[in-house]
């Protein structure tokens, strides 16, 4: 092998390169003894950027697992070349879901290393996107175990709770089998990137002390038709031999997209074959055999419905961005091994980092430690953390989900507006939770209403109540700020739809009476125009009535908020402080809301007094 010149680079430079998507590939090598172990990284920039190589060192504050998670998130190929990994290469190969990754790595190492002599044409494409998930312990039997436990995952208590059952089953399957209980075969972790889905899956394996077989769905889909399907088969065969174990499929959407979509070429055959194979395998094994499949996606809506059917991924677990107290817990986890000076107040940091996912918080602590080291400090100071926040936020803003303080304030009042109007209106379901934890583009905050019972019939006043509740957000903006934002467009759309339906479908207007203008649509066919043919005059009248009912509902919402202005302020303040308002606390506050007299008249007659 020819000597290659690699330059030394700072770890933060490496992180920047990673963030800027410049990194092509990373090699991880642990050197030194148990006590003085350090992890060296050699990485290569993308060919388009000259393909230059660098050496850097993993800071002690970060584990190889965390690094690997980070690399996975950036979809960067990596390979662990640690001494012990190399020694056990033979057993490792058995674990690799795609030998292509290893071959690719060696080929790169030896630059012009005889790829052509390989007898497997599938692996010689060198196109593999496979990632090697190294496992923290590779025991002599060659089983992959992870040392991550639930203690490493914070701020996602509900998800943990749901997964505890899986752990329990893996530990003590007999208890379940004796009773005849069937375990779910598949658990689908759903949530935005960086919230800890991969970490949770590993923690399940770690808690149950069973092997963790992990693969990214994109690795299945290669250039050659049939490769994906055979890899899926392979994976399941391996899993069955190692049971009890966890099989983790990351980015399930890469193969799990709805089949027969709108691809003009009739869909991606390779992907569909792979998906079909996965479905077949899932149907073919018995969950009680001790193989539990966990998959992760941040796009559950595009998944093929067949995947969610009973006996497949029939259990979905939401892994959401953390609220303030969740962020505090995550910050605690990640500052465990970092020297923090006394002036660092994690509580304050939790308040500052609204919208950060777990991965962003981990990154934040690491950045702060790097800055502290650069400034030759003994421990991380608050100033370092604040500077780090600015850096991380700058990165996040590109993905536009951090609100300015003013935007946050508007969202808080907007949501409380929905909640207050909703609490007083008939037909509005009970408000159970208000949140202003940002949820990515589009939805800034939300007010969750839980229906008391399934409703099939809605009364006229309830319909009016719903429309007013939908407009409560916009009304609050106007009452408080005397100007309105674009944040209410979805509410307004829904309110208008409801108002129009009241007149054209439900026959609830006095002027027209019970005449349907809308042809009811088949549930399954979407066949164009749905309005009955009608004269222009009638259409104009409908529009006029829709406008009237929307305006009346809006005026009602404004009246409610004006009367309850104090309460609106108090609740908005709580929300700004804590981001989430729910349970008894919310109930008590909402119970103080008062109904204006003219609202009752409007509900009864549809006329604003
Ligand atoms: P996802 O799979 O949801 O994209 P990961 O599990 O890969 O997210 O998270 C990446 C890294 O971010 C983790 O290795 C961990 O260091 C940190 N992290 C993310 N979520 C959490 C959490 N809830 N608690 C603690 N650390 C977290
Ligand atoms: Mg992940
Ligand atoms: Zn709204």
Automatic annotation (TrEMBL):
Main location: membrane
A single cellular component GO annotation: plasma membrane-derived thylakoid membrane
Membrane topology category: Multi-pass membrane protein
Binding site for Zn(2+): 414, 418, 491
Keywords recorded for this protein, A-Z: ATP-binding, Cell cycle, Cell division, Hydrolase, Membrane, Metal-binding, Metalloprotease, Nucleotide-binding, Protease, Thylakoid, Transmembrane, Transmembrane helix, Zinc
Active site: 415
Domain named AAA+ ATPase: residues: 183-323
EC class: hydrolase
Gene3D superfamilies reported in the protein's UniProt record: 1.10.8.60, P-loop containing nucleotide triphosphate hydrolases, Peptidase M41
Pfam hit, one: AAA_lid_3
Subcellular location: Cellular thylakoid membrane
Cofactor(s) this protein requires: Zn(2+)
Annotated EC: 3.4.24.-
NCBIfam families: FtsH_fam
Family: In the C-terminal section; belongs to the peptidase M41 family.
Role noted for this protein: Acts as a processive, ATP-dependent zinc metallopeptidase for both cytoplasmic and membrane proteins. Plays a role in the quality control of integral membrane proteins.
Subunit structure as annotated in this protein's UniProt entry: Homohexamer.
Name the UniProt record assigns to this protein: ATP-dependent zinc metalloprotease FtsH
Organism of origin: Leptolyngbya foveolarum
